[in-house]
Amino acid sequence: MSKLRIAVQKAGRLHDDSMKILNDVGISIDNGKDQLKASAKNFPLEVFYLRNGDIPQYLRDGVVDAAIIGENILIEKGTDIPVIEKLGFSTCKVSIAVPKSFKYKGINDLDGKRIATSYPNTVQQFLEKNKINAQLHIINGSVEIAPNIGLADAIVDIVSSGSTLFKNNLKEVEVLLKSEAVLVASPMISSENEDVLKRLQFRIKSVLKGRQSKYVLLNAPNDKLEKIIRVLPGMRSPTVLPLAQEGWSSIHSVINKNDFWEVIDELKANGAEGILVCPIENMVI
User: 3-state secondary structure string, the chain?
Assistant: First the structure.
């Protein structure tokens, strides 16, 4: 059977999150130390560990069939490569940062300045859109040190927690784009491997939906059921089961994780008792 060849970043947060999602969808990887590729034990899949910036070209050339890649790299180097699924993890921003001593008032302050970056295409588009004339210094290493060594007046780089900027006495002043991990496919993927990719995507969507949801069980007096059901629509409708105590029912439903506390407050206000909340591993819809 043909194996789907999927690329992931070789190290770092995106690597860890990518391997976790593969593990969460039930794929077991023989992952030896310092391997360039590894095979799955229980799914027709091979994982290639590559530099994030190299992945778009490997996809174009058909060396790999699919990839989990940062959206920021795709915008910089792979706008021709289709996104199959947004994954919601490894979020970051591509931002402009300047020294804390820079009295920054707006983007016009960048006119005539030197900007160090690993994202020249993204930065150039931003500068042209805003009619800013600046000199770009393309750096593939530690961009954040450029102002400290006198190479640049500002930088454009990815920002996650902001701790790296803080350590280098920099401040974030503009956000060019927001990024997350995405699942993408090679234009050269075979029809056989496209079917395998669809199977993988189905599993990933089920896990992501589970991560976004909570399973709720509660008890409620029967005269409050109508109000509580309006608060808990569920996937189709809540499950309502009679309790041994007459006049009471147990209600089971699913709520969005982002609405969790607002929904719980409303349930309590409408007479719900004994509310239990459980994580959901997968949601197959």
Answer: CCCEEEEEECCCHHHHHHHHHHHHCCCCECCCCCCCEEEECCCCEEEEEECHHHHHHHHHHCCCCEEEEEHHHHHHHCCCCCEEEECCCCCEEEEEEEECCCCCCCHHHHCCCEEEECCHHHHHHHHHHCCCCCEEEECCCCHHHCCCCCCCCEEEEEECCCHHHHHCCEEEEEEEEEECEEEEECCCCCHHHHHHHHHHHHHHHHHHHHHCEEEEEEEEEHHHHHHHHHHCCCCCCCEEEECCCCCEEEEEEEEEHHHHHHHHHHHHHCCCEEEEEEECCCCCC
Mean pLDDT (the chain, rounded): 91
Look up residue 192 and give its two tokens.
């056989």
- Amino acid at residue number 215: Y
- 114: three-class secondary structure by DSSP: strand
The model's pLDDT over 123-145, given as tens digits with 9 standing for 90+, comes to 999 999 999 999 999 988 789 99
Q: Give the number of other CB atoms < 10 A from CB of residue 61.
A: 11
pTM of the model: 0.84
DSSP 161: S
Specify the residue for token string 């030197």.
114
d(CA 223, CA 230): 13
* CB-based contact 122:94 (threshold 8 Å): yes
Q: Give the Cα separation of 92 and 72 in Å (integer).
A: 9
Please compute Rg for the chain using Cα positions: 24
What's 82's DSSP letter?
Answer: P
